[in-house]
Specification:
The complex is a heterodimer of chains A (about 90) and B (about 230).
Chain A lengths: L2 E11 L6 H12 L12 E9 L2 H16 L5 E9 L4
Antiparallel strand pairs in A: 1-2, 1-3
Chain B lengths: L1 E6 L6 H11 L4 E5 L8 E6 L20 H10 L3 E5 L1 H8 L6 E3 L7 E9 L15 E8 L3 E3 L2 H9 L3 E5 L19 E5 L5 E4 L17 H7 L5
Parallel strand pairs in B: 1-2, 1-3, 3-4, 4-11
Antiparallel strand pairs in B: 5-8, 6-7, 6-9, 9-10, 10-11
The chains are: A alpha+beta (about 90), B alpha/beta (about 230).
């Protein structure tokens, strides 16, 4: 029986890629007085539900979605968390 | 024997392109809706500028999955010509026909300007009507045009002489001040290894009609005439 899973996907810029938006936000935070802030990097958060046989199947599907569309491996990394939804 | 200009939802330089190839040069040109998959009548396929699919997720990311893309890949693999301008360049990197990626400009601004660009080679059809190292003026209009690639990819591009255009000063110097968007190695346009696929951020089609001032781009399209002769 297929189950539903909730996925939270995080797409982040690879560390070698300059993030000028992150740098701008960091300088904004510092101007507000948060002197201890460093290394601000801006990424994307995507959530969805996925129908899958089991958690392994859900993760396989998500890996494919990330590799093919949600992230561009030239500039981005991704990771995700999966939790099973209780079938109503 | 003709040009084809791909039209995605959100393309906005498709008519500019057609105005040059058909209007100014009188070359047969067909506008190709992105659902169309038959490109067999075309010699040069142009992926134009704009904001295909609203540039959602990443520039060019969704256009890559349009029905027409497989035909464009096949067109390129058969050795025929593919030109991607601005958003078209972004699409060609997303689909893997060209290496690297175009990311947010160094200074975060959308840049709309006319900039000097150096022609690195003139032994390809694209630039045969220019001199090697000639400095031309092209318009640019992009927020995400900073060329990025991993060091080994960049080295391979340089070793194979795949960089066709670089941002430069008015006198041809390549330095940080003449790099509008922070592109690695001042890269404005690259070709694939074979040389039949070109992606560039500047807009030669907006520099072809005397009525709007700049005409440095026209020589590129005139050079392509021999491809469809």
């Amino acid at each position: 029986m297929a189950n539903n899973y909730h996925a939270r996907i995080y797409v982040t810029l690879r560390s070698s890629v300059l993030d000028p938006a992150g740098t701008a936000v960091e300088s904004g935070l510092k101007q507000m007085g948060y002197d201890g802030v460093a290394g601000v990097r801006i990424g994307k958060y995507i959530e969805m539900t996925v129908e899958a046989q089991d958690e392994e199947d859900a993760k396989t599907q998500l890996d494919q979605m990330c590799d093919r569309l949600l992230a561009n491996p030239v500039i981005e990394n991704y990771c995700f968390e999966v939790t099973q939804l209780v079938n109503s | 024997m003709k040009f084809g200009v791909i039209v995605f939802p959100g393309s906005n330089c498709d008519r500019d392109m057609t105005t040059v190839t058909q209007g100014l040069l009188g070359l047969p040109t067909r506008m190709v809706w992105h659902q169309d998959t038959d490109l067999s009548d075309l010699d040069v396929v142009v992926v134009p500028g704009g904001f295909s699919y609203g540039d959602y997720l990443r520039c060019g990311a969704i256009a890559r999955f349009s029905p027409v893309m497989d035909s464009i890949i096949a067109h390129a693999k058969s050795g025929k010509y593919v030109l991607g301008v601005c958003n078209g360049f972004q699409v060609l990197t997303e689909v893997g026909l060209l290496p690297g990626a175009l990311i947010r400009n160094r200074d975060l601004h959308f840049i709309c300007d006319r900039v000097p660009v150096k022609v690195e080679r003139n032994d390809l059809l694209w630039t045969q009507n220019y001199q090697k190292n000639q400095v031309v003026t092209y318009p640019i209009a992009h927020g995400e045009g900073r060329y990025y690639a991993e060091p080994d990819t960049l080295k391979a591009l340089e070793d194979n002489n795949q960089v066709l255009f670089r941002y430069c000063s008015a006198t041809g110097e390549l330095d940080k001040d003449s790099n509008p968007n922070g592109s690695l190695n001042n890269i404005a346009g690259i070709v694939n290894q074979k040389g039949n696929v070109l992606g560039m951020m500047p807009h030669p089609e907006r520099a072809s009609d005397k009525a709007i001032g700049l005409t440095d781009g026209l020589a590129m399209f005139e050079g392509l005439v021999s491809a469809i002769a």
